[in-house]
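Module 6 notes. Inverse folding takes a fixed backbone as the condition and produces residue identities as the prediction. Think of it as a translation problem where the source language is geometry and the target language is the twenty amino acids. Below is one complete input and output pair. Work through it position by position during the lab.
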């Protein structure tokens, strides 16, 4: 099976302001975020305006075949300790099941370890979001924490799993993950 889709991660621009709020407030995305309240314009504007000049975080819009479909980010970027956190979401249901999430995972890992030269990438995922934490584990992330009753979702406490991947562990998984992407027709990033 080969994909005829081109996936690009591009910097967030002013033109994305409204789109990102709409995506974040959609039930399909909000279900997997720490907060599930509707984000108002003022709250969103504070967040969006704070992106400029914040060296501790970086955001990219995910495009598939030229269409914006989701968001990926690095957070808690810590050059001294050579680590950062990351997350992503696909807001467009039309791209789910195409391997886009796997491509994004590979891209971010390569960017963090090859481009930034960091030693660790970590993330937090709601335990209920099994598809995502299983994807991370397939890429070599290991469970490092279970945060019990970490957030309130739909009025009830929800658990969160913390996962980490070390740069020294990535080579053991990289070739297999690269072959999976190539088999789906994706060109490898950072080659």
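Target side of the pair, the amino acids:
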């Amino acid at each position: 099976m080969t994909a005829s889709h081109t996936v690009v991660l591009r910097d967030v621009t002013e033109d994305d302001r409204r789109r990102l709020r709409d995506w974040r407030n959609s039930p399909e995305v909000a279900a997997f975020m720490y907060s599930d309240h509707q984000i108002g314009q003022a709250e969103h504007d504070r967040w969006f305006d704070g992106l400029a000049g914040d060296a501790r975080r970086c955001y990219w819009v995910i495009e598939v075949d030229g269409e914006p479909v989701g968001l990926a980010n690095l957070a808690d970027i810590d050059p001294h300790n050579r680590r950062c956190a990351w997350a992503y979401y696909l807001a467009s249901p039309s791209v789910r099941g195409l391997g886009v999430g796997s491509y994004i995972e590979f891209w971010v890992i390569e960017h963090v370890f090859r481009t930034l030269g960091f030693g660790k990438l970590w993330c937090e995922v709601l335990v209920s979001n099994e598809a995502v934490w299983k994807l991370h584990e397939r890429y070599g992330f290991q469970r490092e924490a279970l945060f019990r009753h970490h957030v309130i979702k739909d009025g009830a406490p929800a658990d969160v799993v913390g996962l980490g991947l070390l740069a020294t562990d990535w080579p053991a998984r990289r070739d297999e993950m690269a072959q999976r992407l190539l088999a789906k027709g994706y060109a490898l990033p950072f080659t």
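Reference fact for the lab report: The CA atoms of residues 74 and 146 lie 21 Å apart.
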